[in-house]
């Protein structure tokens, strides 16, 4: 298996939390390079003093390194790590420089390197995701094919959190529905909703890279007459009601807008939430129920959880 090294330059204060995030993201081994180690008295069990190479250590702060398997959702894993580290600021943890670098495959190569691990994949009853650079023959007449060039945005379609959202959309979206996709990334969920017959879909993301990528993929799949893509923070300033709201974002972020989602939904509307790790399952469930939702279904895949909640 091929590994990619992720390195995060941060503070002593954030070491434990970031190490946990890396472990949760599936990192194989975490290495901490702390300049304090250079000045510590050290000797081996045989009494020899051994030396560390100062070039391996940062002048200030700490560098945490971890190794991630190179697979079709390496991009998503790195994005999710960055997002989780940024979120530490919400808990008043000083993350310092918070400089994230990826090596082994460098950043430019990385944009294309993962392509060879990314093939057409059937991810639900009806949907198959096909990378733009692959040719694919439709297997059955009712198969829905999403062509995708995720670039550097999250959403190759193969990540468990995305797969569960698409499966949930298949159950919830009725022809003629209006849909809002919060944190659209590559636009994949909005495209899926349009292909399921939604009459209008709003695809929102805070990250301009995601907005550009979603616009490109929406055109590629010829659903631009249904899907509008815009830069937006969660549901801020959105006032048109919807039948379905879908959000594949981290638990902490979902909890910030459950009330907004409840108010924007039509009666009997669905709120599909994903991106939730097992440890946060109960907290999100409580948040949804407290806002007034009924949990219709809980989906799980690997260590991830998704909810289909309904406004009655
Ligand atoms: C895990 S990705 C999901 C991408 C895609 N929807 C999928 O399911 O594959 C989460 C996305 O949420 C976006 N995001 C994070 N915080 C946000 C916010 N406050 N408002 C809007 N989008 C946000 C990120 O930029 C990222 O593209």
From TrEMBL:
The keyword S-adenosyl-L-methionine applies. HAMAP family: Methyltr_PrmA. It catalyses: L-lysyl-[protein] + 3 S-adenosyl-L-methionine = N(6),N(6),N(6)-trimethyl-L-lysyl-[protein] + 3 S-adenosyl-L-homocysteine + 3 H(+). This is Ribosomal protein L11 methyltransferase. One of its GO terms (cellular component) is cytoplasm. Signal peptide: none annotated. It comes from the Bacteria. The gene is prmA. It is found in: Cytoplasm. The lineage of its organism: Bacteria, Bacillati, Bacillota, Bacilli, Bacillales. Methylates ribosomal protein L11. GO terms for biological process: methylation. It comes from Anoxybacteroides amylolyticum. PANTHER family: ELECTRON TRANSFER FLAVOPROTEIN BETA SUBUNIT LYSINE METHYLTRANSFERASE (PTHR43648). S-adenosyl-L-methionine binds at residues 162, 183, 205, 248. NCBIfam families: prmA (TIGR00406).
